[in-house]
Write a structure and sequence with these properties.
By secondary structure, this protein is α+β, with helices and mostly antiparallel strands. The protein has helices at residues 51-58, 61-64, 77-89, 158-173, 189-197, 226-231; strands spanning 35-37, 42-44, 92-101, 104-112, 116-119, 126-134, 142-149, 179-185, 201-212, 215-225. It is 24% helix and 33% strand. The structure holds coenzyme A (COA). Coenzyme A (COA) binds at residues 1, 63, 66-67, 147-149, 154-160, 184, 188-191, 193-194, 197. Residues 43-201 form the N-acetyltransferase domain.
């Protein structure tokens, strides 16, 4: 599943944009508090101290199997540091805080870090992450969602709880976004199940669209519209 950071993997040297080329807010730009507390995990922004846990969780062929070529495998400590630097620098503007003043409405543009670490609620240790890839041109009001968890955390319903919470946070934080989408490799049944449970609709299959290490596979496209989310 792609993400910007695509597949939660740090871009390679040739993959634009590099962290240094991303827009950095000036020191006074307010960044909203960002923590989502759930029962099986909590979501928070990445921190450099997450790197060892992240490398430990991400360094698995089973995790890598359904990720794009951007995902490093093996996944090293350096890959984790590169991704954390990228994810914390990747900020998406949104307009919030509309207030009515005697002169009319005032809006404030803030830049939000959309990528979040999925953490063990007891230890605050990183178990995986979730984030988005922004799109442009005619798709500027769509985000692509991507996520992963370390293998030791699979099958405990963690992502079933995380995905709807994150989706809700995205729609609330980015009022201009009208559609979320996700792309899933053929055979990734857990991810398909997860997306359907969260209300995403299987909109179609791009036949033989993916090639990875000699494996040619279909890519399933899922979408969730704002109005579908607000009805759920
Ligand atoms: C996909 C992934 C995020 C799912 O996270 P998770 O926390 O293990 O998922 P959950 O435990 O919440 O289970 C989600 C659903 O998948 C089902 N499921 C879990 N493992 C499954 C498997 N191997 N085959 C089929 N269904 C499976 C669960 O039963 C559940 O369905 P249900 O609600 O009907 O019972 C996790 O497996 C993962 O990180 N995989 C590697 C990276 C990846 O594939 N990322 C997504 C790319 S599109």
């Amino acid at each position: 599943m792609a993400q910007q950071p695509s597949d939660q993997a740090a871009p390679k040297a040739a993959d634009p944009p590099a962290p240094s080329s991303l827009p950095h807010p000036d020191a006074t730009t307010p960044i909203p508090p960002q923590i989502i507390t759930l029962t099986k995990s909590h979501l928070r922004r990445a921190h450099p101290s997450d790197a060892p846990a992240m490398a430990r969780e991400a360094n698995s062929p089973a995790v890598a199997k359904y990720m794009t070529l951007r995902w490093a495998s093996p996944y090293t400590l350096n890959d984790a540091h590169r991704w954390i630097a990228y994810a914390t620098a990747f900020r998406v503007p949104t307009t919030t805080n509309t207030t009515t003043t005697p002169d009319g409405n005032t809006t404030t543009t803030v830049e939000v870090v959309p990528s979040m670490q999925i953490c063990d609620p007891a230890t605050n240790t990183c178990l995986g992450s979730i984030g988005i890839k922004t799109k442009d041109d005619i798709e500027a009001r769509c985000f692509e969602v991507a996520y992963w968890l370390g293998e030791g955390s699979w099958g405990r319903g963690i992502m079933t709880e995380v995905l709807p919470a994150y989706v809700g946070w995205l729609f609330e934080t980015f009022p201009d976004v009208i559609r979320l989408q996700a792309s899933v490799f053929e055979g990734n049944d857990a991810s398909v199940r997860l997306l359907k449970t969260a209300g995403f609709v299987h909109e179609g299959t791009k036949r033989k669209a993916g090639v990875k290490g000699g494996w040619v596979f279909d890519i399933l496209v899922f979408g969730l519209l704002r109005e579908e989310w607000s009805l759920s």
